[in-house]
Amino acid sequence: MSSIKKRDNGKWRARYRDHDGKEHARHFDRKIDAQDWLDGETVKVRTGTWVEPRAGRITFEEWFTAWSSIQVWERGTYLAAEQAVKSTPFYRKRLDKISANDVQAWVKSMTKPNDRRKKGLEPSTIRTRHNYVHMAFMAAKKAGKIGVIPSADVTLPRLGRAGSSMLIPTPEQVGKVIGAADPYFSTFIELCAFAGLRLGEAAGLQVPDIDFLGRTITVNRQVQGATNSDVQVKAPKYGSQRTIHVSEKLIERISAHIARFGIWEDERGQWLLVNGGNLFQRGSAGHYWREARSQVGMDEYTLHDLRHFFASGLIASGCDVVTVQHALGHSTPSITLNTYSHLWPNADDKTRTAGTALMDSVFPSADSVRTGAGSAL
């Protein structure tokens, strides 16, 4: 219901009611201005884009703090969302003043180097950060804080083909970085390279998780956090709890590590790897890794690239998708394929190999073919 009436003082009073029946009114000197305002507000009510005039006056920071506090998130998810939101230049801007151009400019800035990084972020990282920010804006729209979602129609960088930006160290490089690492931390590197453990999984490994006779390692937990003060020991991410069949050589090297350095025990269990009485976390493990890689010219490689090294070795040895999926702890085979499909032989390779095998079965060697051809002349 809406109306315009002229008041005794000559002003024009335009009024309407929102979906909750609450009346909103404004006064104008001219009737045409009152009608324009009223038409705009009633259209918003009908199309679902109307918001309480005072609702969007809080900052994006204030909204994210309130909204995230009621989400059922793991701590790692919260920290990732917080990092994404705090990376925006409009973090402290009023919610209703943030435009699509603001969001697009932020996305563009992530593709460029800055004072803290030598190159732009990967497209997948940019898309992940945008997704967290977009979730916050969608929730604000649903809560009636904003009428339009400014993150909805921005242009995001295209994802490259699988493996186009993947770095896989060579066996020689892996050997060199293990040799350059602190002797204690070298075992951490070996767990990532030869068992495919994630950083948090290697940090969370306890001695009972290792079957020395059966030559298996079971992933039962992970360490989350970037500093000693925010470390949390959690169950593995969904689908990642697994038992990995590992090389006897890796078991021998773990045994040698225990014989040399011992184990560290607290009320939570017997830990294989610790850093001065604290569990390894992203900060401390990253520190030791950067020290080692810098000595052998591998500055562009991350600890996670050792996991790619492990996966590439499995695939090169003929392991199928499901086997690699289980070894890496991916929740579905599609994740494994999306990540590593470029490493598996394609149909052309298989056809060529099959044809070669058929010819080899008929012509055992090139010499016999030449011999046969010569005798026929």
From TrEMBL:
GO molecular function: DNA binding
UniProt entry keywords in alphabetical sequence: DNA recombination, DNA-binding
InterPro entries: DNA_brk_join_enz (IPR011010), Integrase-like_cat_sf (IPR013762), Integrase_catalytic (IPR002104), Integrase_recombinase_N (IPR010998), Phage_L5_Integrase_N (IPR058717), Tyrosine_recombinase_XerCD (IPR050090)
Any single GO BP term: DNA integration
UniProt xrefs under PROSITE patterns: TYR_RECOMBINASE
Start and end residues of each Tyr recombinase domain: 164-355
Protein family (similarity comment): Belongs to the 'phage' integrase family.
Protein name from the UniProt record: Site-specific recombinase XerD
Organism expressing this protein natively: Brevibacterium linens ATCC 9172
The organism's taxonomic lineage, starting at the top: Bacteria, Bacillati, Actinomycetota, Actinomycetes, Micrococcales
